[in-house]
Predict the 3D structure of the following.
Amino acid sequence: MSAWPEHALAAASHRDPYPYYLELARRGWARDEGQGLWLAASHAAASAVLASPACRVRPAGEPVPAALDGTMQGQMFGRWLRMSEAPIHQPLRAAVAACLAVLPSEEIQRRAQGLARRFLAERQANGKGLDGLADFLPAATLASLLGWPERSLLHLSEQVAALCRAVAANANAAEREAGEAACQMLNAELSTLADAGWLARWRRAFEVLGEDALCANLLGALFQSRDAGAGLLAAGIAWRCAGPWDWRDDAEWRRRLRADPVLHHTRRFVAEDVELAGQRLRAGDQVLVLLAAAALDPAGPGEAMDFGRGRHACPGERQALAIARGALAALEEIGPDWEALDGSMVFRGPPNVRMRRFGAGASK
C-alpha cells in the first residue's frame, strides 16, 4: 500500500492516513479537482462548514437521491433527522434527543453484552465471527430495546445492511431493489411491535410530528447505527488486539478516537455563496469535511470529531459507546486469540468509515 492515500475519499481504508491528514489540517483548505471537492481539513474550517446554514446535507433541489425518488426508501430518507433542513429539523432533533436520553447507558450496555454473548455462543470467536458481531450488534441492540423479538434480530440486522447498501451513492439497481424490500419489511415489522417501553417513549415524543415521522426516524436510528457502530466496535477490538486498554471509560474512547477516528469525513453541499474560515465558496460547490484531520489539527482544541458538530451532529454517541462496551465485555469473557486477530486485520468498508475486518476482509 502506498505511503500516502490516493485522495481523501480513499484515506479511511489506508494503513496509516494520519500524516496525510495532519498535512491537510495544517493547510486548512485544499481543492481536489479530480474529485470535484473542497477539503475542509483544519478544525476551524471543519467547524465553520458544519455550523454554516449555507452548507447543507443534501444538494439544493434534491432532498432525496434521484434514484430513490418515488420509493418508500425515498420517503423515509426525506423524513430522517440526519437529512432534514426544513423547519421541522428542530422539533425532530428535540424528539429524537428526548428518546435517546431516557435509557440509562448501563441498560444499553447490559442488553448489548447479553446479545453479544448469545451471538458468540453459536460461533467461533475468530475473525469471521467478530466481523459478524460488529455487523450485527449495533442495530440489533437498538431494535431489541424497541421490542423486536430476539429470534428476528439477525434477520433485522441483515435488512438494515441491505438498506445501507441501497442508499449508498454507488448502489446498483439490484441493491436498490433489495433495499426497497428491506424498507417495506422493516416498516411492517415495526407496526407489529407492542406499544410499550422505549417504543412507547418514542411514540409520545413524536405524537405531534406524526406516525410517518416516527417510523422514518426509528428506521433512521437503526440505519445510522449500522456502519458507524460496526466501525466503532471493530476499532475497540483492534485496540484490544494491540494490548489491554480501559474500554470501560468513555473518556478513553474519546482520546483514542481523536488519534484514530472511525468516521473520517462527511459531505456538505453549498447552497449559496459564502466565505468560511477564509475560503470563498460558491453555490453548487461540494465540501468534504475531514473530521479525522480536524481532530488532529495542532491549532484545534484536541477533541474527537467522530460524532460531528452543529445541527447535524449525531445524537447517539452515548448509545454507540455503551453498545461497544457491551461487546468488549462479552469478548473478554471468551478471551479470543487477540494476536491472531490483529495479524488478520484489514481496512475495508464505506469510504467515510475506517472499518476493520478481521476475517476475509470483505464487508457484508
Observations:
- Residues 1 and 57 are 32 Å apart (CA to CA).
- The longest helix spans residues 211-241.
